[in-house]
Amino acid sequence: MEMGSDEKVGLMSGRFVWVKGLFAKLVEVANKTRALGKDDPRRVIHSLKLGLTLTIVSMLYYYKPLFANFGVSAMWAVITVVVVFEFSVGATLGKGLNRAFATLFAGALGAGAHHLAALSGHVGQPIITSIFVFLLACILTFMRFFPSIKAKYDYGMMIGILTFSFVSISGVGDDEILLLLQKRVSTIFLGVCVCVVISIFISPFWAGQDLHNRIALNIENLALFFEGYGSVEYFKTLQDREAKDDKSIQAYKSILKSSGIEDTLYNFARWEPGHGCFQFRHPWKQYLKIGALTYQCAFRIDALHRNLSSSSFQVSQEIQTQIQEPCMEMSMETGKALRQLVSSIREMTQPTLAEIHTNNSKAAAKKLKASLKSSRLWENCDLLTLIPAANVGTLLVDVVDITEKIAEAVQELASLAHFKAAKPADSAIQSEKEKLEPNIGVSFVTIPISSG
Amino acid sequence: MEMGSDEKVGLMSGRFVWVKGLFAKLVEVANKTRALGKDDPRRVIHSLKLGLTLTIVSMLYYYKPLFANFGVSAMWAVITVVVVFEFSVGATLGKGLNRAFATLFAGALGAGAHHLAALSGHVGQPIITSIFVFLLACILTFMRFFPSIKAKYDYGMMIGILTFSFVSISGVGDDEILLLLQKRVSTIFLGVCVCVVISIFISPFWAGQDLHNRIALNIENLALFFEGYGSVEYFKTLQDREAKDDKSIQAYKSILKSSGIEDTLYNFARWEPGHGCFQFRHPWKQYLKIGALTYQCAFRIDALHRNLSSSSFQVSQEIQTQIQEPCMEMSMETGKALRQLVSSIREMTQPTLAEIHTNNSKAAAKKLKASLKSSRLWENCDLLTLIPAANVGTLLVDVVDITEKIAEAVQELASLAHFKAAKPADSAIQSEKEKLEPNIGVSFVTIPISSG
């Protein structure tokens, strides 16, 4: 059957469409890959590191003297690398230690169980072994539900069940079983060691450092929002605000999106040895406390932003002039206090200057409260138009409270982790700078502040 | 050296203290275990199921005809059970299918690589194989960073690297490698099959059912809060409110705490076949949408609650009488609307009655707005004392908006999942009930409602 020319062209173009579709898909995947690598180049490095580790360990397999010793068990080292090598040092260490020690203990237990079961003869052995396996599997599986065990030893529990079954079931003699166990434990230790060494010594990614940076970044994101707020005039129309504040809005929203990551990083950081500026027993838990506070702060900023961008938010000129100044001042000072905290965390120095700005913003909050109380403000205007503005004010006061708590938590971290004192030169420059800047808040420092 | 009598007693009591401490610790662990089992008895059943599956598969090891066929590879079936058997059917299926198919494809690829490398002779083989392993490990590890792959195929990628290395490195001939591959694939398929069968046919825990129940429970928790709010008089002193509302506060806080679980359940539910009232392609994604809305609602309730329990919240008698009625009405009606949605989800029927209550609460919101606008309210009172009350009002109005969105999302779910029409008998009873109840909101149904 011959095809007409038209049909041929149709089929050809049909084929081309298919090829074109495939090509477009490939380009899309390539773009996504590039974006993923560009977003965090450490991903590429991690992939290369895993490839390298796996190649090194598989080379051992070809190295005869070692292979002769381990035999087929050398494969366990390869498997160990694939399952243990994780992104951060902490995760790799945690999984590696879990795997190594669970194999050791459960293997010994399994050998014991095997010996006991073998005593009961050929008929009894499978039954006794099955009972042992059933009991151990039930107990360890249930233990995985304990939150404290789940956080640190979940993988170890699984490997425990696995190794116990593996050793106790294996239909070999008592002598052989010890040899099997020895091979398994030593290959797994070897695999874990190579993973840990490569993870630590070739471009290490520390979960602790990540946690530290993330907390600083979150506080910086809050600072960005307040600075954007303080510089832009407060009660502008919605369109203007949206355009100008877009960056600062993205900033605080990223905090709300990324909650939960801190907990994961904390669980990994606990496994890590001392590195860089961090001691072995660095107070990682304090970071979770600060993280929770920044989250709460972002939470309230979201409410504030919703209030400002709602269509009902329209404020008369009179209110504007009354409320604007203290609001801007509060924002500016809060932003400055947060900036100080960020640089204190980043440089690991005592946050000495933050307190001044916190006090300034508290003074501004007091002024705002006074403005709201003065009857002059709410004469001759509709309550419904007044409420949103007042609302914004009270929300801001609320936010200032949380900023103070964040400052306290950072202070606590600084003393727990023995941050060094701020360089006198730096603070001198800072105070010089403050004198030069037209800082409306400074005059409030001497005003007595009421707490709460 | 002899000990004095006092020293002996001291040592004895020291020992007893140690024993006592151990005993206290044991009792504590036992109590925790009991609490964990009581909290969700499915945990105990899951542990027993895993023990049973593992025992069944390890029995196969002792069953000579099968063992003769598989040899030592039978151990892979045991290992598969330990790593694949998860709590829910969806998680087990997802992990099992990932493991089985990744082993199949990567194994075939590994055999091909092994064949190619063998062509280059004894010296070239290790080098060529290492290059293959390095490349595949790098590519698959990087692919694990793609969010879409991470959600569904993360485990498969890891098993892919593992099997490819395992097969391509193994220092055996081409014939043997096919046998090895065949054994590995068949034992792993066997393990996965036993896991899936036990997971589905013995007391199955469906992630989809869990997700369905959780969404219904979350909406019920919101309803609880509003009912507690509607029945208790609104502007009572803090102490009274704390005591009475404790349950309803716990309820909405549990929503804020459990965010993120829905995403996990959704990822598992996608793997599950049709079960119970759920078809294979049940619109699970819609549950995430409803979940996000309930989360937002709980978010705002939290702000509302913070406002009410703050020390500055004191309201004059006059405001109370003005605002109280519409606020209570809004809460009551919102609570009723949410209850309707809950029973609609639980019974998988169309939520026909919810709309009436939503409209009622919108009418009440309008009334509240009118109250706030009337100048009579804010004459002769301090603005600062008025703001918190007005704030509570506006927050409530905000919450009513979200409730409406939740109702729409549930309606959408009902049409996507083809929920059956509500039983006429039920709705008749319901409307009877409504006639009997002193429902202050019903009269508002006919009032024209402004949207937004």
From TrEMBL, chains A, B:
Organism superkingdom: Eukaryota
Keyword terms: Ion channel, Ion transport, Membrane, Transmembrane, Transmembrane helix, Transport
Membrane is among the record's keywords: yes
One Pfam family recorded for the sequence: ALMT
Membrane topology: Multi-pass membrane protein
Positions of transmembrane segments: 100-117, 123-143, 155-173, 185-207
Record's keyword annotation contains Metal-binding: no
Biological process terms in GO annotation: malate transport; monoatomic ion transmembrane transport
Cellular component, GO, one term: membrane
Subcellular location: Membrane
InterPro entries tied to this protein: ALMT
UniProt similarity note: Belongs to the aromatic acid exporter (TC 2.A.85) family.
Protein name per its UniProtKB record: Aluminum-activated malate transporter 2-like
Organism: Cucurbita maxima (Pumpkin)
Recorded name of the encoding gene: LOC111485452
